[in-house]
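fyi for ur records
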Amino acid sequence: MTFDLWHTLVYLDPEEEERYIAEQARLAESIIASSDPLSPSAGQGALSPQEAFSRTRTEAIAAAAEGRSIPLAAQFEAASHRAGRHPRAIAYAEAIRRLVARTPFRRAPQVLPTLQELRRRGYRVGVISNTIGEPGWTLRPVLRQLGFDPLVEAWAFSDEHAWTKPSPALFRWALEALRTSPERAVHVGDGWVDIEGARRAGMRAGILFTGLQAYGESYRQYLRAPGHRTPAGGIRLSRLEELPSRVATFLPLRPPRTSGGAPLGPGARGCARRTLGRVRGNIISPVASSSNEELRA
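which gave:
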């Protein structure tokens, strides 16, 4: 199982989210404005810090919709040069770290019990997140404090790779880290990039999570950026606690085999336990008789 992060596992209320995104921009603009000029004539034709950062962030969002990652440091350096200023990427990264640390991120309702139940059933769990506004390393301490570390085996933050969702490469990296294959996995997320990325990666299913789609206006603009689309059809889920039973209907773990319907003998039971252990290590077993149309029913 792989999951999106924002508005799937963690979230901010719309007003908090709006303040958080605005503060990211304000910090960038302040640091750029206080940096030394690149040259005595650098101000001629240069953009204002506000326009430089806004334009660069817009380009990063558009690139993400195409599956290309532009990490925060690269965004900030490009914005600084557009403003004719020496880039102070380390200062900005530290400012973002402090911002992330003090922001009141919240766990999605019932998310920890849901992940615990999935793990109890033998599924492995990974997270795939487009980290455009904050590096993954700033999020890891917060996610640890929120209790995710014991339950998540693989973290795929896009700023640490060349790809973003919906590129299948980011999904495949996460699945390799979980030691499974796309056809034996399902992805859960709240956006088009999640469902489309799972499809491109060849995953068994993509589930659209609709339970936390109260977005701030800035985040809504991100979802309306060029390249983004509105998810249509497919499997939808509004409550995470319903996920284990829903997943079990089309991605069950293989039960121990029997011989002609008779109870297994001692040697056969031992073989079955070893077989089931291997299947559990691979997360899930696809149901060969289920078509994609049946999964959408």
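The chain is about 45% helix and 10% strand. thats all i got for now
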